Amino acid sequence: MSDLQIVADALRRARHLVVFTGAGVSAESGIPTFRDALSGLWQRFDPGELATAAAFRRDPALVWGWYEWRRAQVLKARPNPAHLAIAELARHVPQLTLVTQNVDDLHERAGSPAVIHLHGSLHQPRCFDCQRPFTRLAADPQEPAKGRRIEPPRCLQCGGPVRPGVVWFGEMLPEQALQQAFAAAESCDLLLSIGTSGVVYPAAHVPQLALDSGAVVAHINQQAFAPNSPREHSLVGPAGELVPALLQRAGWQ
Ligand code: BV8
Ligand code: ZN
């Protein structure tokens, strides 16, 4: 029996499904993945260098410009068939917990009701100094021309620089989101890991926790994953094709 059918059968039987997504689920919406966010405007910067508080302190306009460039892309993008199929899954399984590492809002715009954002969101900026939410974000961000920097807006209360509402390297993840994700991984019977390279921790613990807790884990990725257990499967291909195919094989579409 094909891996696709094995996973589709596990999907039909699932009482509690966890869907864990990374940048690959938004790739077919035209959003560069974290690794190839280097392409285009930013190939001369290492995102691991830009996605840090130190980089923001050093050059707030460069980092703010990078995030505004990314936010402009998200606002222009549309959910793709993978986001839509994940939202559809919630209408068929008794319980679905959606956990994402992505900072875009494409899951929400595809209709997924509750999204656990482990690494925050581009759409919730806050003051770098006093942490107050900043609610005056431009509806249509200026797209920085090649290398142009954009001075971040100033906090209305304390005048501090506004930062993106994302979790940077070296920063703690939101405690409640992380606990919810771990608890769901420990109690699910199937976890679909979609479009993630699984290199960033502690988020990358989630699929392993599900596997260690006895769940079936399926990696949906353009790259093949070498399974470590008979309960681990690798479905190779674009998420925009494979997730709808799973829905069909489960007889739900
Ligand atoms: C923490 C938000 C601890 C920002 C992100 C030294 C100092 C400090 C910390 C560390 C350190 N060394 C290691 C660490 C830990 C560090 C870490 O794990 N580093 C890695 C690089 C080794 N982690 C942290 O720093 C975390 N915090 O540890 O705090 C602490 C303890 C005490 C006190 C204080 C702190 C915080 C990490 C959060 C970083 N923020 N995002 C932003 O977006 O700018 S991470 C970012 O990259 C993403 O959110 C994601 O999590 C991660 C990986 O990206 P992916 O989503 O997997 O995307 P990627 O491009 O890698 O892969 C895409 C995949 O999709 C590929 O597999 C590809 O094949 C596939 N694909 C592509 N197209 C498709 C597809 N699949 C299907 N269909 C397609 N069409
Ligand atoms: Zn402030």
From TrEMBL:
The active site is at residue 119. Substrate binds at residues 67, 70. Its EC number is 2.3.1.286. It is found in: Cytoplasm. GO terms for cellular component: cytoplasm. It comes from the Bacteria. Its main location: cytoplasm. NAD(+) binds at residues 101-104, 195-197, 221-223, 239. Residues 1-253 form the Deacetylase sirtuin-type domain. GO terms for molecular function: histone deacetylase activity, NAD-dependent; NAD+ binding; protein-malonyllysine demalonylase activity; protein-succinyllysine desuccinylase activity; zinc ion binding. Its cofactor is Zn(2+). It is an enzyme of class 2 (transferase). InterPro entries: DHS-like_NAD/FAD-binding_dom, NAD-dep_sirtuin_deacylases, Sirtuin, Sirtuin_cat_small_dom_sf, Sirtuin_class_III, Ssirtuin_cat_dom. 2 residues (Tyr-67 and Arg-70) present in a large hydrophobic pocket are probably involved in substrate specificity. They are important for desuccinylation activity, but dispensable for deacetylation activity. This is NAD-dependent protein deacylase.
